[in-house]
Amino acid sequence: MGYASTGIKEILDDADVPKGSFYHYFRSKEAFTEEVLKLYVQGEVERCEKIFSDGSVAPLKRLRRYFEELIRVYGQTAPVSGCLLGNLSLEMADRSEPLQSLLHLSFASWQTAIARVLREAVVRGDLLKSSKPEELASFLVNSYEGALVRSKADRSNKALENFLHFAFNVLLKG
Question: What is the pLDDT of residue 174?
Fold first, then answer.
């Protein structure tokens, strides 16, 4: 079930929350979704920081571990497959200005975190000095999200495995 096909009543019934309590805290389903998205992004920032801050591991190894972790958490074998950023982008980015803005900022923040790790790899000599970390980070985020969507369509992690192979054994090989 997606955003558009899920009503407030279904959310409240599932959470066993009275309607009045919901509207005391949230003015609309969109406002509720904004808060859910903020919490989701906060959790993902914490995941990034935990993996990316391990200076005892080379930058590109950290980056690969990070994407492997995402595949374990959001891939087809996960209890709930898919990324909230990607799912909401597909369904709501062109329908809700507040959600689109928050999605845009969330993707940009994610890209920036990955670019920092790629810059470390350039400094260490693991990537060519001519590498463009911001552009590479954008490509990695976009490729991962595309592979995640394809994995849903195929009901298989093959697209995600392809992403890992080409990202780390071809593109970022140095």
Answer: 60
DSSP string of 58-112?
-HHHHHHHHHHHHHHHHSTTSSS-S-HHHHHHHHHTTT-HHHHHHHHHHHHHHHH
Tell me how crowded residue 57 is: count the other CB atoms within 10 A of its CB. 14
The conformational region for residue 16 under phi > 0 = left, psi -120 to 50 = alpha, else beta, is left
**For residues 108 and 1, what is the distance between their CA atoms, to the nearest angstrom?**
27
DSSP 167: I
Domain boundaries, the chain: 28-171
Phi and psi at 126, nearest 5°, equal -75, -20
- Evaluate the CA torsion angle 113, 114, 115, 121 in order and state its sign: positive
Q: What is the pLDDT of residues 22-80, one digit of tens each?
A: 899 999 999 999 999 999 999 999 999 999 999 999 999 999 999 999 999 999 988 88
What fold, for 28-171? Tetracycline Repressor; domain 2 (1.10.357)
